[in-house]
Amino acid sequence: MKNIFVTGATGLLGTNTVIKLLQYDYSVIALVRKKSSWMGEESKNLRLIEGDLFSDISQYLQEVDTVIHIAAETRQDLLSYEEYKKTNYDAVLHLFAQAVAAGAQKFLFVSTANTLGYGNAPVLGCENTPQLYPFTHSYYAQSKLAAEDYLLKNRKATDVIIVNPTFMLGAYDSKPSSGKIIFWVWKKGVVFYPKGGKNFVHVEDAAHGVLNAVKRGRNGEKYLLANENLSYREFFRKINKITVQNPIMIAIPNRLLNFLGLIGDGLRKLKIKTNLSTSNMKALQICNYYNNLKSKEELGVQYQPVDQAIEDAVQYFIKSGKC
């Protein structure tokens, strides 16, 4: 039985990853802020330890084969790069140093597709495409890319594998996090949608990709965990079909999004937290599309339709009383 140490175990991907690891008889030590926040089932092969990303976890890593680092600062309203750097870069260096000192064989880093260049329908983004605007102006994406670069430069110390999931949906989105996009549409009589699009993936498939990256991923490689490229209009129509509703759909003019971005920039200069910014509003206007060929060929990931991801998310929200 292999021993795995996981951070971010109570988030959307973290919960699904730990569940997947336990299904395949891995022994898991999971770092959590509070044990009560664990949403999965108890298991004799799961040990929850309380702490933060700067805790001394060296005693737990002595017999660990692989560290899977999922925890990250993903909020879009923070005002400075330093606020992202602390969690998304400094904590990575701290964890990596402890993993190396303990002799861990692998360090798997869960990053984001936004560190890679996106494409459009004819030419999709891939693992070798350099990061593009507006994500070059995103403090979140910048901090994740800085962590990637550090790990790859130090991959001789221990094997480094990076996975870059796109927009994940599915069960165990307890906050909710990415599942908020479903509430944008669900039970609405009128839906305003941006003209861009993005890549969507079932979180179960992303978790499967993490598991297979542990087993089959190559040192120094990145793997996009991606599936369907959809415009927001197409994606919202899927939600409408699954939730049996037929709202009025109205496109948001790009000029309005640009104006809102400028307002957000002004608020941020006044130290007011907001999700609005020029880069965030621009991200809604582009076709943020990627391919998954490498993860399918090298990791053997088989992807489910996004319809299933939406259905699973919706059912989880109903069951947990979040709708």
Automatic annotation (TrEMBL):
It holds the Pfam family Epimerase. Gene3D superfamilies: NAD(P)-binding Rossmann-like Domain. InterPro entries: Epimerase_deHydtase, NAD(P)-bd_dom_sf, NAD(P)-dependent_oxidoreduct. GO terms for cellular component: cytoplasm. Signal peptide: none annotated. Residues 4-224 form the NAD-dependent epimerase/dehydratase domain. One of its GO terms (molecular function) is aldehyde dehydrogenase (NAD+) activity. This is Dihydroflavonol 4-reductase. It comes from Chryseobacterium angstadtii.
